[in-house]
Queue: 3 jobs
Job 1
Amino acid sequence: MSKLYKYKIVRVFNSYAKRIPEQLDIWHDKKLVGANLGEYIPSEHRGDMGATGSQSTPYDALRKMIGADAFSKDDVFADIGCGKGRVLAYMAAEYGFEGKIRGVELNEKVADMASDWAKQFDNVEIIAGDAFKQDLSDITVMYLGRPFETEFFKKFVDKFESEIHHPVTVYYWVDQQSGSYLKGRKGWTRERRIKIYYGKCLPLVTVPQGFSKWTYNPE
């Protein structure tokens, strides 16, 4: 698959092919929460804080990653680096998550975009701030859409482990850069790992993204 990507014509064709599922996702954004959550916004803090840009996870990927799993009303779901909040919108409006839903976003302007639509849900909270300065101790389910570059990801894992004293389910989207850091690490168990293509449009030329589901148990 990736070998085909060396040809310019394939890259161009793939770029146009992706626009179909991207537009369908934006349509679904508006249907669920009345806002476009699909625009990519570059990071202002990649160099100094290792923060990646705001790129929304496709709904098809979210359904494959989370859709079949069960949660309780006592769970606390947190998306670290939530961007405009598509994952939160999915959990609140499509999945119907009954517990607390929290998004943490470093870029204040992007966090404001998420806050605008989130006001319609009593169980959704958007925090504009540095994830390294947040209390993580009550989280039971965590979503990571590759919010950090590798070195900062490692530092965040250290912080997470120092504050968490109960089992946590962790979803890691686009895990191929630093997901291997968790493999073999004490307390971490990989439940599954799969590759997901962007939508269902022309997958033969679409580069897949890695997804893994982990359980962290400090005991």
Note: DSSP finds six helices and seven strands in the chain.
Job 2
Amino acid sequence: MKKVVLLRHGESVWNNENRFTGWTDVDLSPKGVEEAAAAGKVLKENGFSFQKAYTSYLKRAVKTLNGVLDAMDLDWIPVEKSWRLNEKHYGMLQGLNKTETAAKYGEEQVLVWRRSYDIAPAPLAADDSRSPRFDIRYSELKDAEIPLTESLKETVERAVPFWENVIAPSMKQYDQVIVTAHGNSLRGIIKFLKNISDKDIISLNLPTAVPYVFEFDDSMNLVKDSFLGDPDEIAKKMNAVANQGKK
């Protein structure tokens, strides 16, 4: 049996402030650091021992992975980073408070921006200093690969190929891997793995730092998926994520 754990990063500073983050490279909050260590502890207690890890270019995901691996005494395993695992780019919304934005534009519009499948927020201007094109870590990307905003559909179109071409093939070599990334890049992969419809993906809310375990047979056919932890606590965390865009 092959196992892949998908893990949204721990709470970030902007999560705590209820801001749209996207590709903005904000750090973990103190709570987020604790969440990462707790996730590593529960994974170790449940017998996980990863041979490879994947994460994004954003420090909140990288530091969450570091915290998990440190708690598991697995700091030494190989880690591969990719921009394709970055969060959905929120365009001009990045940095805005979600509650204030909901009060200004309405909860329905904010839900569309946050959770709809094929509608993206207004883009950054091409010369906006916040554009990823001015960030050295993306200097090797083609202009067409650098987003100024994204829908979930566009996030899926860059994240799923990384699953298909990198992560899934690596399972021929490894029995257990962990992918520490972001709410929307992981939702895109989950949508693909579970064949979730464009409509139903709107209702999937991933809590911070709760391991989501996917089990596959040797041919990488999905057999089972489940969150690791107390179901009631996980439900509360999911509900909190769902309510972030409300007035």
Note: The CA atoms of residues 85 and 152 lie 13 Å apart.
Job 3
Amino acid sequence: MNSSSIDQLARVEEVLESRQPETIIEPSLDRISKLMHLLGDPQLAYPVIHITGTNGKTSTSRMIESLLREMGLNTGLVTSPHLHQVTERIRLNGEPISAERFVETYDEIEPFLALVDVESLANGGPAMSYFEVLTGMAFAAFADAPVDVAIIEVGMGGTWDATNVVVPDVVVITPIGLDHADYLGDTIELIAREKSGIIKTGSIAILAPQVPSVAEILLARAIEVDAVVARQGVEFSVRDRALAIGGQVLSLDGLNGTYEQVLLPLFGEHQATNASLALASVEAFFGGTTQLNELSVRSGFGSATSPGRLEVVRRSPTVIVDAAHNPHGAAVLASALQESFTFDHIIGVISVMADKDVRGVLEALEPVMQEVVVTTNGAPRAMGVAEITELAELVFGAERVRSAPSLSSAIDMGIELADAAGTSGVGVVITGSVVTAARARALTGHFEAQ
């Protein structure tokens, strides 16, 4: 980017960040629906694959996009939150939208944002939020491109999420667990009901395995709206998987065919599950009646990336970054570390947001981490060092816990501890939130937009 583009992007980011943050939602589709109507309903101009769930949404979305691009389609992809630059959230054909196009899109829709804000405020409601505006920008950018298909990741929940103004051809629901309880409900069943709201009449619902009570809710919603259902482990599945250098090799049973020797350059059983969901979603998008081109499937998975998810960012010692931010994600991380790596000793560097189940995250990681360095990632929502240290000592025992005043110093301490061990069997794992993962990537030299 040239200096003018940087200045213009900074201008738009400042305006966006002055709005209500995405961590605070007002459960209504009124504002985003009004904006879409004023813009001519751009979200209806292309087919959509809509994805929700508690964990795995972004990885699954990126795999779907990679497969569709390999099939020769022009793609749009929405994911959140971003790691480094806000432009990462809106992708065209696999690349973040350019700063120039991002600014142009905002400037084009800004007069309509003002109209929506005025009406909402006059009726006693809020102005459009940060997430609502970005969602509107993405839908407009995709219509303008134009794209052949849009892959849309839900921001939070489902029914009331700003993305839920689309009419999807395919919906994908990854495993559901407890998260965002203050907005979505304090039981897994309440959360499932909220997320099931993306299943629409005429859509094909691709469902990951769920606990029985959640599965019942999702199936009931599909019956209610007359949607077709395909369940992982029933209509499609991971037939086999084997560890490989840099990832794993999969045999996948799709909706209408088997795909052998698929190299996935990502670690963990959960990523194999995500790959199976992605494959079935793409098969469903194309009608689910014929097998996809196997070379395109292998190429699509072979080029799949998921930055900040079990990502190795350094060797000697091995340093891994993962965005696990809730107990379910932390448990998945713990399992993947045991399966995919041969560490004798793992040092955790951990910073979690204070509004999360911090103790639950620590308890999920305790069995696989021999010692931890707890810290703050510097975000206003991050739990303070003293508080997380107290919780960590309760979970790990004081002798296994160290603390550091900043993420940078915590990473340095973790690496020093690994070097002092004098063995190749020691790894450092930095985790606790998407912000922790993003800042750790930057601190270890991975500044690029993803």
Note: Residues 320 and 429 are 5 Å apart (CA to CA).
